Batch of 4 targets.
Target 1
Amino acid sequence: MQLYTFRSEAGNKISKYHSILASYSKVLRTEEPTNIGFIHIEKGGVVGYHQAPVPQLFIVVNGEGWVEGEDEQRVYLKSGDGVFWNKGEGHRSGSEKGLTALVLQSEELQAPS
């Protein structure tokens, strides 16, 4: 048995895109170009505006926060809510109270039905 932690303190700080108080904890990588990981956004944190390098599914698993797309309209999310971005789609995310999101990224990823 191997134990792992995916808590924010075990993650890597997100320093790109003018991000603030945010970290990323990768869960695994498959043979196909697929990444599954957690993004931890601390209280008052932001993952700055950027274009999705591949299709992405962002699912809030703890806490609450917001996302903005290219239209800059803020949408609030809480645990159990998710958002899908297509490759190249601009977006940013943040939280006033803190959140953890499970993130799936892959060239082959398609929006849930």
Note: The two ends are 35 Å apart (CA to CA).
Target 2
Amino acid sequence: MNKLTILCGATLISLMLLESGHSEEEKTNNRYNVLMICVDDLRAELGCYGVDTIQTPHINQLAKSALVFNNHFVQVPTCGSSRYALLTGRRPSLSLGTHNGAMTGGKSALKQDQLDGAQSFPELFRRSGYHTVCIGKVSHSPDGKVFSYNGKGDGRHELPNAWDELRTPYGQWKYGWGSFFAYGNGVSRETTSGKSKVRPLYQHPDVPDNGLPDGMMCDEALKVLGELKSKDKPFFLAVGFFKPHLPFVAPKKYRDLYNGVEVKPAINQQLKKSAYWHGSGEFYGYHAPHTKTKPLGTLDQVECKKSYYACVSYVDAQIGRLVDRLKALELEKNTVIVIWGDHGWHLGDHAMWGKHSPLEKANRSALIIKVPGMAAAGKRTDAIVESLDIFPTLVDVCKPTFNKTAHPLNGLSLSPVLKDATHPGKDYALSYWGGARSVRTPGYRLIARKKGDSYSDLELYDHNNDTEEMTNIAGQKPEVVQRLLKNIKADSPRMAE
């Protein structure tokens, strides 16, 4: 079994394989191209995860030759900081990157100058000779450039020294955030203001796929793949789809998929039962044809879930087009494919709509990895893994020639799990939200609010018997609470032997 050992100095990691089961040809550096697909607000609720209600045939098909991670957990349940942890490989407790502007603001900000070591894995691959292209929302901004929601800003690269090309098309929406919050016909959330205008929570215009931004971005990605095919160098192509982020906007045909389909409201609708409940301010800030009750009425919950599902099905179709293009260009056999959701999303669970909580639904998200010839192809794994592990995994699998990082990596390679789907993965995963810390083991989730050296608002959930986190058993299991608090204090999950 290959194991990745990371020997870190302040600005250096050396990556080496201790035991070799590979042929000499497999040891070649820059072994594979990478297609990294990031999907905003994507729950682990897809056909390949056993959820038959939602229609994701293209991701399901890819999953037949990939490994589906049942227990993948993000570091922070909000877009910017989750992506910061993914791209830099740094744990939020060390990087202080716990806010949406983590890459560009505060003590966590990335340096614009090129350092001795790479600050992100796209930069590391670029410095290894890969041609790197970003389309859509991969870092926090929807086009890789630093602008405000209103389009103002200097447009510098949000991920410094990482991309040879930024190729996000804007179409009728004219700039990045305008396209990110798009409605039909060039209208955006950012252009709807004043009492005479509304911001619809969901909309399903009767347009072709490329009549909305995600379809346009897929068109651009197909074009880029054709260009990359002709280059005499490996590539790293990252495509970040906007949906199913609010507002729930997808072509009508995808909403029509759910006409007559039974979609059930959330199982756990306990209002304010958790100390970590929030009022879903972003969700209720949109205009909807229903009363803004909490919990939301049953029929309104169903309609909102169908609109969310329509967005997921829309993105699924774009992913299918990308994978088909890889096959047509005969690139699939030499390309690692990663599908990653930047965090989960409450769909009425705990009477919440959105992310921004330390509970399971916000921190568990989709992760699917395909490596050519992988042993665990077509399987699902219950291994506990974190978003932090993707950086060292790509380095381990692809072996890029440049191997220095600006900071030590805090994740671990998932190669053992890619070889054996029964591998348990890490002993636990850690997530961070505000002052809360959330630790997830195979059997439990403990949430605690940290203040100084003390912890309060303890919530313990038994995931063997209570996957919806309906009953806090912290008072009944003090020994489990204390054991998991030690994990939170240690802040350093390890790969199981």
Note: Residues 117 and 405 are 4 Å apart (CA to CA).
Target 3
Amino acid sequence: MSNLEDRKLALSENPYAEKYAAARASIEAEKRSKEASGYAWMSAAMNYGAAAEGPGRFGKISSGAKWFCIWFAMIVPNLLFIRVLL
């Protein structure tokens, strides 16, 4: 048999084999891409936490923002209470 006859025989047995293989490869590539994206997001979140607690500039800015929010939450209700009731 020639190569063409072998190919025709293989296609006559399963005409969708090539499409199935291409679709399966596409699904696997998409799955790997989503998994890699998840690892990247987790790495970014972990590094953000480590940088926010560190002694560098970002750590100082993060600490300042935290303290600003705490003081804002303590002072504003008192000011609103004084403004409305007094």
Note: The helical segments are 3-13, 17-52, 57-85.
Target 4
Amino acid sequence: MKFSELLSVLKPHKTVPVTPWRAEHRWQLSPTRVLILFFGLAIFGLGDSLLVQGNVGNAPWTVFSQGLTLKTGMSIGWATFVISVFVLLIWIPLNEKPGFGTLSNIVLIATFIEVGTHIFPKQNSTLSGVFFSLLGIAMVGLGSALYITCGLGPGPRDGAMTGIHYKTGIRVGRVRLGIEVLVLIIGWLMGGTVGIGTALFALLIGQSVAIFLGVVARLTHK
């Protein structure tokens, strides 16, 4: 494959593409759609666990989960699950309604973060840690693209973001930034790992999701 062709394949997508497996409502289930959803969430969770095991800084929400782990003694998978359930409760005053994908998000991402932290070895060098972080960011991007295009409902954090946006009128980007900064600070104060990996995630995760949305769009278009 020529370099120009590779760049074309990896061109970021500006919107969420309409795929053959996209649902018309949040509880419209089919074997193919559910399989793609579960696969995407599993990849997402494993990608997040690579950031944890890279040991050079986690994504903001994982910093929060890790901090909770250090304070309570629960595993990082359980900490992620508890935080997700708590965030879902915030949906109630925001009048947001969960879908099958929302509930699957809570269970599967927490499960596969837990699985990944037992499968992948913890890294002790910056170089290998950065490699783990970059691979994890790519996997989170791929997993996000797959589960988002199923149309079965946003994850708890995304739903809270859009719900706060609709209630307050504050721009989505600013709401997301405010939430991410808040949980990052809380997690860091509780002992969560902040570092190069955190910065890489903040800088690259948006592009990673957009690139894989583009890949999905082009593959399904053909």
Note: Residues 84 and 119 are 23 Å apart (CA to CA).
